[in-house]
Amino acid sequence: MSIDKASQDLKYLLDRNYNRTTAINLVVNRYELSEKNCNLLHRYVFPEKEIRAHRKKICPPRRMRGKKIVIDGYNVLITVEAALEGKDTVLGMDGILRDVKGIFSKYKFDKNSEKAIGKILEKLKEFKPSSVLFIFDSQISKSGELAAFVRERMEEHGLTGDAITSPHADKEIKKLNCITLSSDSIIIENVDRVIDLPSKISRL
Fold it and tell me: Fewer CB within 10 Å: N-end or C-end of the chain?
């Protein structure tokens, strides 16, 4: 299949320090891939040095017990929604589950979102962190309402913490550098410990 060859070619280029965007564009154009397959490549393929670095930071969910955790809100929510639907996810070469929808800026809160939030909070309750902070990107429509909904559901689940919006969510998450729930490579590279919660929820 062309996507398999494309993945091999992309990893070859990344391992030789080609710029990521340039390498992806080269491979996508060569194999005439769709936008969805372009998203898949972006979330699946990494150079060997990043694979090793990411894997060193992944810790099991039990490590959040008694600890403050920070959640990359939309990143985790969108991935869990896709995982519960059983489609549009890929396990990256670094061992982290990611969505391949590419809907971030067009995200709409609906019944699937409510179900995903419920699953996330159930898992958090199971692993008993001392506090939980969801950070949602404020530029996404109705982020404030989503944060308020999550705060309400957190209280129902007996979880201590907050859900906020921020115009610079990634920057805030990196600065806090707590145990972080995210599959965003930029965030992973700038925090010490990462938990891949969606991959655990996908097995429910």
Answer: N
